[in-house]
UniProtKB/TrEMBL annotation:
GO terms for biological process: argininosuccinate metabolic process; L-arginine biosynthetic process; urea cycle. Transmembrane segments: none annotated. Residues 175-393 form the Arginosuccinate synthase C-terminal domain. L-aspartate binds at residues 119, 123-124. Its EC number is 6.3.4.5. L-citrulline binds at residues 87, 92, 123, 127, 176, 185, 262, 274. NCBIfam families: argG (TIGR00032), PRK00509.1 (NF001770). PROSITE patterns: ARGININOSUCCIN_SYN_1 (PS00564), ARGININOSUCCIN_SYN_2 (PS00565). Belongs to the argininosuccinate synthase family. Type 1 subfamily. It comes from Leptotrichia buccalis (strain ATCC 14201 / DSM 1135 / JCM 12969 / NCTC 10249 / C-1013-b). This is Argininosuccinate synthase. It is an enzyme of class 6 (ligase). It catalyses: L-citrulline + L-aspartate + ATP = 2-(N(omega)-L-arginino)succinate + AMP + diphosphate + H(+).
Length: 400
């Protein structure tokens, strides 16, 4: 009788490296590793070899960079999704795509289980499992961190060394990292101590520390069509190329790092350092372009949409009618969000250096102090009386 199969979300990192032998020790299952390439800087052939050497019967390496950037990262960008006013959410919207691929591989292989290496304290366990169940509620989940006796990353390192599993993490450099084309996150180690300044030279992988960035500013033009980024410095680029180029430009200028204590979905607060160089430029440019083009009421409502979209992405609720409905609103309100924003980058800072669009509601003639056909200074008197009418009535009643 053939063994039941489990599809493991595999990265080749510490957690998933020890999961393959652990599964084989504790379950009579055929382990199929699935690595979804969303832009992490890994040697995928080496990852494949490592999975086989660790005991996997088969390895899928799925290149989903283009889909990730266009359908996930850039959709969240258009929505203005920023979690708790700072976090640009790189990990959050990679998880639903990875979940989708895991389900597809499970269907192809006839697997009963999907396994992941997320801890019982993290957000990702919720995102992965919610994503899987949204696409196929019949699949079963194996989550070793909620099952085994390993209770820390130090324990995991000991287990790897005991079983001759090659890992790059050490107890001295014990950061937990997650990377894709949009960002890289850093957690754990001395970052967990709130009193500690994070160590730029050790932590940063996509960004030059600002004080080591060039001593002269860099200018970059970003062009959008209907809210989608399409050009850098006048050159039309596909989404992956465009984001890669902006990551390099912003990273070299020390742009895009945040150090945040955030509210996790599971209830606790956690500290993380996030590098999102290109994404920071895109978000700054798009938000500024929208200030020119969206009317006041739409702009105000979009801010509420952005906050809700960020919450949905952070919570792993990507495959929901609500998210699709919000995308429909964004598609409609982004019809005229077309133009170019020039940014000035200097040692970690970003400044708007020029705005170019045919769809701006800003009119220099109207906004200036001079006269114009559409606005008369005299009109303001009647407007103010009507605008302040509730205040005047309230004051009248009070003094009467």
């Amino acid at each position: 009788m053939a063994k039941e199969k489990v599809v493991l979300a595999y990265s080749g990192g510490l957690d998933t490296s020890i999961i393959i032998p652990w599964l084989k020790e504790n379950y009579d299952l055929e382990v199929i590793a699935c690595c979804v390439n969303v832009g992490q800087e890994e040697d995928m052939e080496a990852v494949k070899v490592k999975a086989i050497e660790s005991g996997a019967s088969k390895v899928y390496v799925e290149d989903k960079k283009a889909e990730f950037v266009k359908d996930y990262a850039f959709r969240a960008l258009r929505a203005g999704a920023v979690y708790e006013n700072k976090y640009l959410l790189g990990t959050s919207f990679a998880r639903p795509l990875i979940s989708k691929v895991l389900v597809e591989v499970a269907h192809k292989e006839g697997a009963t289980y999907i396994c992941h290496g997320c801890t019982g304290k993290g957000n990702d366990q919720v995102r992965f499992e919610t994503g899987v169940f949204s696409l196929d509620p019949t699949l079963k989940i194996l989550a070793p961190w909620r099952m085994w006796d390993i209770s820390s990353r130090e324990d995991a390192i000991d287990y790897a060394q005991k079983n001759d599993i090659k890992i790059t993490v050490t107890k001295e450099k014990i950061y937990s990292r997650d990377q894709n084309l949009w960002h890289i996150s850093h957690e754990g180690g001395d970052i967990e101590g709130l009193e500690n300044e994070h160590k730029e030279d050790i932590v940063y992988m996509m960004t030059t520390p600002p004080e080591k960035a060039p001593d002269k500013p860099t200018y970059v033009d970003i062009t959008f069509e209907q809210g989608w980024p399409v050009k850098v410095n006048g050159e039309e680029l596909e989404p992956v190329e465009l984001l890669t180029k902006l990551n390099k430009i912003a990273g070299e200028n020390g742009v895009g790092v945040i150090d945040i204590v955030e509210n996790r979905l599971v209830g606790m607060k956690s500290r993380g350092v996030y590098e999102t160089p290109g994404g920071t430029l895109l978000m700054e440019a798009l938000k500024d372009l929208e200030t020119l083009i969206l009317d006041k009421d739409t702009f105000d409502f979009k801010k509420m949409i952005s906050q809700k979209y960020a919450s949905i992405a952070y919570s792993g609720q990507w495959f929901t009618p609500l998210r699709e409905g919000l995308d429909a609103f964004i598609d409609k309100t982004s019809k005229n969000v077309t133009g170019t924003i020039k940014l000035k980058l200097y040692k970690g800072s970003v400044k708007i250096a020029g705005r170019f669009t045919d769809f701006a509601l800003y009119d220099e003639e109207i906004s200036s102090f001079g006269a114009s056909e559409l606005y008369s200074h005299k009109d303001a008197e009647g407007f103010i009386k009507l605008f302040s009418l509730p205040n005047r009535i309230r004051a009248y009643k009070k003094h009467k």
